[in-house]
Amino acid sequence: RPEWVIACFGIISCGAIMVPIDAKLSEKEIQFILNDSQAKVIFTSEKHLSSLDSISSVLQHLTNIISLDNVEHNDITLLKNLKLRKGDKKYNPIYPEDTAVIVYTSGTTGVAKGVELSYKNVLFQVVALSDIIKYSAKDQFLSILPLNHMLEITGGLIAPLYAGSRITYCHSLKTTTLISLMKETRTTVMISVPLVLKMLHDGIIKKVSNLPPIKRRIFDLLFNISKFLLRFNIRAGKVFFRAVHNEFGGKLRALVSGGAPLNLDVEVNLNALGFRVLQGYGLTETSPVISVNSFRSSKFGSVGKPLQGTEVKILKEDKDAKDGAILTRGPHIMKGYYKNTEKTADIIKDGWLHTGDIGYLDNDEFLYISGRLRNLIVLGAGKKVFPEEVEEVIGKSPCIKEVCVIAKVATRGVRAGCEEVYAVIVPDVDSFDESDRADARAVKEKIASEISRLGKNLAEYKRIVDFEIRMDELPKTATKKIRRNEVSKSLVA
User: Fold this and answer.
1) Would you say 142 and 156 are in contact if contact means Cβ atoms under 8 Å apart?
2) Which residue from 271, 317, 333, 490 puts its CA 20 to 30 A from 437's CA?
């Protein structure tokens, strides 16, 4: 919302540090971030005031709560009442190496880390993305991602304003609302995540399937011709499917995709329809973009070329292997993890940041992602979930002996093809009544109840979507660590 942006620039103008927080986090997660970052002032909307009330007594550094809404509540200040007093400075000096923002990667436990980014990091991204996406004063930018997402802060807020673009904030991700707003504002650029692009793609395909047979055959013919022409870098989709583009406002020139892997069919099909999809790759720790496809040069299935001024190298275990660990260095690398030199040293070695992902560079220096070295689950909307964090919360149940949280690809619904949070659980049979131990349904119902109860301590997107019960001990290493890959391979289809 615009008030978030007003707060953001107010924080910058007084030389303070911004700590954006995901509004969907649980109270415990918010409490952890506020205390770890030593936050003194909170800007919030009315709907979060009751949550802040309940944890305010344990917020060690808090001095002020400022409401973005015009509603009186206890001892808070209203944003509209903030005014410079006579003699107050209009701004404080800031320098390139100063910390601009601390973004927390995830939740409540020691797994959560505050990524410390400098003004130099942020400005490098703004200039690089402006050069690639070619923002201008003519652009109508639609902002749909939460502003705790670094890609939205750099590419969706500062870069458009840097170029004089206009930004509209969308209050809902429902497909009908999104398309209606794009049509109304004649959107030209939007930063998105694969799940939203898949929703738009599926909506178009569904409409086509409802066309009369003759119109559907004509559409299929033109679609296949457009797809074929893409091989020669001839883009005919906008001419062939003008009616489709008019439904989106008729001016859309770029859909930037990040946060999670984009399905290749969705990428190719949207491009065949005449939409320019620019897929990129990065981490919060790289502020955030490492590489991205551009109008000048792009390849389907790749995440583009590294930003100019950055370096990417592939560290292979076997010299004959195609892919290896992805390392990067340059002006996009974070200052470090806030108050955590040990974790910083684990990820940045000799100036190279180890991304935890594996991939390869082709002969044209396009980067391709093959998989992840770490156990991170990346949801379709780009949200990232640490399995260990979910395991720690759910494992507190006396009914659960072992729990292994893994990614499982959804096969149905809007999330089909995207990863979901799934669990394999070994129940502690001794905690059940004798009559229930032999009743598989009773055991599963009790476990489901415990997952629901304990899951309230996690953000909604981190909660277990589905699970299965195993009565035998899960496979382990000699040091008693669960072999996550083995568990994943043995999943019930």
Assistant:
1) no
2) 490
Ranges assigned E (strand) in 70-161? 77-78, 99-104, 114-118, 140-143
Region 123-151: mean pLDDT is 95
What pTM was computed for the model? 0.83
Q: Which of the 8 DSSP states describes residue 473?
A: P
- What is the pLDDT, as a whole number, of residue 107? 45
| Two structure tokens written together for 35 | 């205390």
Q: Which sign, positive or negative, has the C-alpha torsion 168, 172, 177, 179?
A: positive
Task: Assign 3-class secondary structure to 334-382.
Answer: CCEECCCHHHHHHHEECCEEEEEEEEEECCCCCEEEEEECCCCEEECCC
Q: pLDDT band for 492, please (50, 70, 90 cuts).
A: low
Mean pLDDT of 317-322: 83
Predicted pLDDT of residue 405 = 94
pLDDT value of position 478: 56
**b/e burial code for range 248-262 (CB count within 10 A of at least 16 → b):** bbebbebbbbbbbbb
Q: 């992602």: which residue's tokens? A: 369
Among residues 399, 370, 408, 374, the alpha carbon closest in space to that of 389 is found at: 374
Q: How many helices (H) and strands (E) does the chain have?
A: 17, 23
| Nearest to 327, CA basis, from 365, 370, 358 | 358
Rounded CA separation 433/120 (Å):
61
Q: What are phi and psi of 301, to 5 degrees?
A: 90, -15
Query: Residue 89 and residue 385: Cα distance in Å, rounded?
Result: 42
Distance CA 357, CA 162 (A): 32
* Four-point Cα dihedral 84, 89, 90, 92, nearest 10: -140
